[in-house]
């Protein structure tokens, strides 16, 4: 899920910039291609995993829920480690590549495990690889684009990433159909695709390293040795992380939204995978336009508008309106939410940070958001169980609305 910068100004700031010419920085495009191929691999597994674990390995729904929590948590905590390590060594490509390679190896390891908890360990390692690579990769994107093109750069990357998420389930079902429901074939093809992504990264991604600043910067200067301390002391980063966490708590997981839509439309189980495919398709169309809009109109307004769209989607789910039209609108609003917030959040974080702290700072914001969404998923699941889905969704909608009302205070000076 570019704009040419003045090269003399870039040199004065000490920030590496892509050469003038193409509208899209080559490094951003290659990183987008790496993410596209990786997401094809990841979504191939994700598309078949629930059925494989619950039906194939006999895992109970409760155990699957616990595994899903572990899956999310491993990613959240490793984001900090990946960002800190990338900044300290100034080798963003190497740290990101290690994360990609770990996830690829885990696809192969899926062929060797047959018990639910061994599978859980492999999946946790896979998610750890994702957490390790995310902040260094986003730092490379930020360092490869000029300040006025951050939103566009992340929009292009996220759009390419989502194209992979769109293709992955389709490839998985094609493999299952050709291999007569052999899950091992899906895992094997997934590994080959992931290994190709690692090769693309190794051969074609350029490592962008920080250079010493030669002129005063609006933010605090980077220390000699990067660490989390200076990042956590930065008021703008703290505000941005707090805003991301506050909204994250009231962001209902996609799976719950799709389950509510399935109930409303009485969709057969076979049609359920079409819901995330539709969301991914909408994101693919909206990511770049909304990234450009964020660069022009401001990242804060676009970020908040995305959450407002999500609140409207929740209200539509709570409304008595029937038929397919409201459901289609919910999916479109969900796509708009992701397009207006995912890459835009990182585009807002980049300019707040000196180049030598960029991966660490982004990791702090990402971790705050991921942990908040994990907590929100637990709260929503408990609310669904004990009070019903309608009450749980109403609580999320109210919380999101209150968060939007408070955003002017919490986000002022951070979301720009």
Automatic annotation (TrEMBL):
Domain Major facilitator superfamily (MFS) profile: 27-416
InterPro entries: MFS, MFS_dom, MFS_trans_sf
A single cellular component GO annotation: plasma membrane
Superkingdom of this protein's organism: Bacteria
PROSITE patterns named among the record's database cross-references: MFS
Keyword terms of this UniProt record: Membrane, Transmembrane, Transmembrane helix
Matching SUPFAM superfamilies: MFS general substrate transporter
Pfam families according to UniProt: MFS_1
Record flagged with keyword Cell membrane: no
Membrane topology recorded in Swiss-Prot or TrEMBL: Multi-pass membrane protein
Any GO MF annotation of the entry: transmembrane transporter activity
Entry-linked PANTHER family: C-METHYLTRANSFERASE, MAJOR FACILITATOR SUPERFAMILY TRANSPORTER
Protein name in UniProt: MFS transporter
């Amino acid at each position: 899920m570019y704009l040419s910068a003045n090269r003399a100004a870039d040199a004065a700031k000490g920030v590496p910039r892509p050469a003038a010419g193409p509208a899209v920085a080559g490094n951003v495009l290659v990183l987008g291609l790496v993410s596209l191929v990786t997401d094809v691999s990841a979504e191939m597994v994700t598309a078949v995993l629930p059925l494989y674990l619950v039906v194939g390995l006999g895992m109970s729904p409760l155990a699957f829920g616990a595994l899903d929590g572990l899956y999310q948590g491993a990613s959240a905590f490793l984001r900090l480690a990946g960002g800190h390590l990338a900044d300290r060594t100034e080798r963003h490509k190497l740290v990101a590549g290690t994360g990609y390679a770990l996830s690829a190896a885990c696809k192969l390891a899926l062929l060797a495990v047959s018990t639910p908890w061994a599978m859980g360990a492999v999946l946790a390692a896979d998610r750890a690889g994702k957490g390790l690579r995310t902040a260094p990769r986003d730092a490379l994107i930020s360092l490869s684009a000029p300040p006025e093109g951050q939103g566009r750069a992340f929009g292009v990357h996220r759009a390419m990433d989502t194209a992979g998420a769109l293709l992955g389930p389709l490839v998985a079902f094609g493999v299952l159909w050709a291999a007569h429901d052999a899950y091992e074939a899906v895992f094997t093809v997934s590994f080959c695709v992931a290994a190709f992504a690692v090769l693309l990264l190794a051969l074609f991604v350029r490592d962008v390293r920080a250079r010493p600043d030669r002129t005063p910067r609006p933010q605090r200067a980077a220390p000699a040795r990067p660490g989390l301390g200076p990042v956590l002391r930065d008021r703008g980063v703290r505000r941005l992380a707090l805003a991301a966490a506050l909204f994250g708590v009231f962001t209902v997981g996609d799976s719950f939204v799709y389950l509510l839509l399935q109930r409303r439309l009485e969709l057969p189980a076979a049609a359920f995978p079409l819901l995330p495919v539709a969301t991914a398709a909408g994101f693919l169309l909206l990511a770049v336009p909304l990234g450009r809009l964020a660069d022009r109109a401001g990242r804060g307004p676009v970020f908040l508008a995305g959450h407002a769209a999500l609140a409207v989607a929740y209200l539509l789910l709570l409304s008595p309106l029937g038929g397919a039209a409201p459901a289609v609108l919910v999916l479109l609003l969900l796509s708009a939410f992701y397009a207006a917030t995912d890459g835009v959040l990182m585009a807002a974080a980049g300019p707040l940070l000196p180049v030598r702290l960029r991966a660490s700072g982004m990791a702090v914001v990402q971790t705050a958001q991921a942990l908040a969404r994990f907590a929100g998923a637990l709260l929503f699941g408990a609310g669904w169980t004990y009070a019903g889905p309608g009450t749980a969704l109403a609580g999320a909608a109210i919380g999101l609305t209150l968060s939007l009302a408070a955003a002017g205070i919490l986000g002022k000076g951070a979301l720009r």
